[in-house]
Amino acid sequence: MKRILIPTDFSEASYNALEYAVQLFINEPCTFYVLNTYTPVALYTTTIYDSHTVLNMDLGEIYKKASLENLNKIILRVTDAYPNSKHTFTAISSYNVLTLELNEIVATSEIDAIIMGTSGASGLKEVFVGSQTMQVVKDAKVPVIGVPDTYRFRALKDVLFTTDYRTGTNQVGLSLLEGLCRKHISRLIFLNAYYGIELDHEQLENKALLDEYFERDAHLNEVADGMDVLEAVADFQSKHNIDLLVLVHNKHSFFENLLFTPVVRNIVHHASVPFMILPPFKTTL
Fold first, then answer.
1. Averaged pLDDT for residues 45-51
2. Which of 18, 48, 142, 193 has the fewest beta carbons under 10 Å from its own?
């Protein structure tokens, strides 16, 4: 039984992620935890909640009630569209900061993955739009799958896993990825950005371990010569259709993060296909 956590702000982007999730796990028993959080900032929002009842109820009760009502509406909407006896849904409404609530639910409910919608942005808007996703990716102890708001589900035919082979089979989320590849009969492509330096012993060992781990799945290894990660991904996507992009978010040194964080941020803001960010591997948790 998979346990999938899906935060929602009741936008179409977040509903699109919910639709993606139920189709991604269509043949697998799952519990979907659909979460809405609200904070004092939400008190000034009029797009989701009705204001005419403010005078008749405690403010906290108003937002709790409206949150639960909207959660039930979107759960009914998705179950009507995708009826599935293997799927159950749990609505969670919480007066809390999103990342804090996500981490608490992940810890207490043995969550396998977080799936959330993303919206593209540019310029000053990019500072704000997608920042929540970046914070979730930074703090998450489980894989985070981001679904662009304009993306419509299609089966995972080709999955691109960008890797420097610094992580092996102790990577959190690897079993989830392998299961998805097997269920969808996907081809997994390991893509390594190469700058003329041969793989060292650790990298070669991890490469062999990954080959063995995914031996039941069709997979291959590709090298992008003289490119950084973003260039390698863009070059590969220009030649091949990719249905999921996978990236490991390891704990780096400060200087390594200066290089790595912009890669994640670029993917979060501009990816045209769903992406899966794997958290630091188990030995660092």
1. 49
2. 48
Pairing of strands 87-95, 30-38: parallel
- What are the backbone angles phi and psi of residue 42, rounded to the nearest 5°? -65, -20
Instruction: Name all domains of the chain by residue range, CATH numbers in brackets.
Output: 2-148 (3.40.50.620), 158-284 (3.40.50.620)
Is the pLDDT at 56 greater than 90? The verdict is no
Q: Which residues touch 272 (CB under 8 Å, ≥6 apart)?
A: 148, 151, 237
67 in Cβ contact with 93 (< 8 Å)? yes
Buried (b) or exposed (e) across 26-40, using 16+ Cβ within 10 A? beeebbbbbbbbbee
Identify the CA nearest to 20 among candidates 269, 244, 249, 247. Answer: 244
* Rg (the chain; Cα; Å): 20
Q: What is the pLDDT of residues 59-94, one digit of tens each?
A: 777 888 899 999 999 999 999 999 999 999 999 999
pLDDT category, 123, cuts 50, 70, 90? very low
Supply the pTM of this predicted model: 0.86
Q: Are strands 187-194 and 113-118 parallel, antiparallel or unpaired?
A: unpaired
Q: Are 267 and 229 in contact (CB under 8 A)?
A: no
